[in-house]
Here is the input.
Amino acid sequence: MHVLHDDEPPVLVDAGIEHADDVGVLQAGNHARLAFERGHGIGVGGGREGFAEELDGDPAPEALVLGQPDLGHAAGTEQAFEAVSSVYDVCGVHQGMSLRQATGSRERNIEVLLLTGAAAFAVLGWYALRAAEFALPANTGRILTQFAASGVIAHVAVRVLAPRARPEILAVSAFLAAVGLVFVIRLAPDVARDQANWVSVGVVAFGAGLWAGTRYARLKRYTYTAGVAGLGVLLATGLFGTTINGARLWVEVAGQSVQTTELIKVFLIIFLAGYLADSASVLASPTLRLGDRTYSGAAYLVPLAAVVIGAVGALALLRDLGSIAILLLLAIGGLYVATGRARFVAGGLALLATTGLVGYLAFDHAQVRIDTWLDPGADPGGAGYQTMQATYAIQAGGITGAGPGLGRPDVVPAAPTDYVFTAIAEELGLAGAAGVALLYVAFLYGGLRVAAEAGDTYGRLLAASIALLMAIQAAVIIAGNLRVIPTTGITLPFVSYGGSSLVVNFGLAGLLAGISHASRKGLTDRRA
Here is the structure.
C-alpha cells in the first residue's frame, strides 16, 4: 500500500493492514510516515524498508495511516482501507484486492438493489398490461429478458471498469429505460423489440463511456477539436440529411436514421467543459489588471460565442429550434457553474428569447407551434389536436392514473416520442409522473455529487455539464407536455422511443460514472 502526507496534526486511519511488508511509500511528499499499533505501544517507521518498531510481541501489528485522506465516513476496517485506496494510489496490495473490493463494495451492492427495482418495474408493467387484456407483442418475454440481461452486463461493466462509481447513475438510467420500454410496449408494440435492441446497444455505449470516463483528463486535449467536429456534423446534416416533420435532423447510416443533433450534444459538452476549465477564472473577473492598465475579460468569450452562435445558426437552418434551446440553456448553465456570475445567465436568457423571436418570424412551423401553444382550441381538429388530446390525457389520469393499458394515450399522435410523459401521466397518474420527474432530479443530484467529488476543474465541469444536459432536456420536454412552454420536438432522455437519443444518453451516463470512479480513486493525473 502506498501512502501518505506529512500533515499536521496527523490523523490516524485504521487501514486494517497486518504486515509491514504490504506498505510502501509512493509520491508521499517529504517525511511520509507509517505507524503500527501493537498491544500497548505504537512504533513509527518510514520508507519501504525498516518499517515499525516492534513493540510488545503478539498480536500482529495493525497499520495506522498518518495523513489527511478525504474520507466520507469514519475510519475503520475494510471500508477505511477502501477509502484510503480511493484517494492514494495503492500498488501491489490494491491490485491483489481489487476483485474482492469490486465484488463486495457497498456502492455496487446498492446498485444491484436499485437495478432489481428497475427490472421489477418492467415485469410489473408487463403483468399489468396483460391483466388489462392489452395485445402484447408475441415476443414480450424475450424483450424483457434482453432488457434484464443488458442491465446485468452494464452492472458487470461497472464492477470491472469503474468499481468506485456512484451507484445512482446506472440505476437511475436503467429505471428510466425500464419505464420507456414498458410504455413503448404499450404505445408502439410493433417497435418494442427495436427499443430493447437500442437499450442493448446503449449498454455498449455505456461501457465505452465508462472506459473514457476513467481517463477523462485525456478528453481535454480534444476541446477545440470537439467544437469543430460538432459544427462539421451540422454541416454534413445540412448537406446530406433527411427532413422529417419540418426539421432536417436525420442522416441515413446503414439503413438506420441517425439523429445527428444527439451527437452534437456530446461534442458540445466536451468543448464546453474544456473551454471553461481554461477560461473560467478570467470570465469570473469583471476586469483584468496588468500593470497600470485594466482590460475586460469579455474577449475570452469569443471562442465559446463562435461555437455556440455557429451551432445555433446551423440548427436554425435545419429548423431544429428545440435543440437550439437545449444548446443555449446548457451553455448558460455551464457558464454559471464555472463562474458563478449571474450576468451570463441574464445575457444567455436574452439571447434565447431573441433566438425564439427570430425563429417565430422566420419559420412557419415555429409559428404554428407557438400559436398552437397559446390557443390550441383555434384549430382543434388540426394543429391543435395533439396538444388538446395531451391535455385531456393528463387530466384523465388524476392522482393515481387509469392504470397501464387502461387509458387512451394512443390517441395522441406522437405519444411514444414527443408526448410520452403525457402517456405516463394518464396511466400512472400524477404520482407516477412525479416519480419519473424525481428520477431526473436524482440523476441531476448524482451528477452534481460527482462534480463536487472531482479533483480538478475539468472533471467538475464535465460531470456538471452531463448532469445539466439530462436535467435541462427532461425539463424542456416535460414543460412542453404540460403546456408550460411550446413543444420542442426533443425526446425524454432514456424514456422516449428512438435509438440515437437512447444510445447517446447511455454513453454520457457511462462517461459520468467513469468520472466518478476516477475522482474517487484519485488516479486522474497518473492516467492522463
